[in-house]
Amino acid sequence: MKRARSTSPRQTRCDNCGQLTPAYNVVNYGSADQGYKQLCGQCFNQEAARLDGLVDFQDARFEPVSLVDCAGKAHKFHFRTRLFGPGVALDAFELRRGYPAGYRFQIIGEPEGDLLVLLGRLVEKMRRALSIKHISRGTLGLQIADRVVQGLIGWDDAAEGRVPLIVVDGRAITWEEFGRMLMTFEGWQFKLEIRDKSEEF
Ligand SMILES: [Zn+2]
Questions:
Q1: Which domain holds residue 78?
Q2: How many domains does the chain have?
Q3: Where are the beta strands (DSSP E) in the chain?
Q4: 39 CA distance to ligand 1 centroid (A)?
């Protein structure tokens, strides 16, 4: 019989509540003179709310949700709330081998607002994004489907961060591969606009 190991390498025990927490929900909190603590997202938010005097801040822990994209593929999204001074960020992301990868979404709300309402708005935004494909597979491999590409600038370990790994339609695409796709339009013009993760185009 196989036994699950109690501590997987991607889990960290929260220094405050003792809960095993996946790496994506751990915050290294503190200062150089007072030392650092590894806090789970909930303990970090509690601490941030206390420091900012946000007595009405209500944290929430949302269960993963599966959404289907326009090609019929299901994507399982995990959620994370993060309080930061003037706002609260609600993130949705897919996981691959325990790390955020694929589609990633964020929405920012009022720290003392209703997180359930914010979640509703985030899910709407996710549905809108999942209903469009910017990349399609043609006879020449992956191609830009309709002249507009929207995605996320990610880190490429293989390139040691010299060039990005971009994420389009929840799919990781190397800079080289993206360059190849652009060559279909050789001689055409393009416009590049960069936006914060929480903003919409
Ligand atoms: Zn904790």
A1: 11-130
A2: 2
A3: 11-13, 20-22, 26-31, 35-40, 65-68, 74-84, 87-96, 99-109, 135-138, 141-144, 151-154, 165-168, 171-174
A4: 5
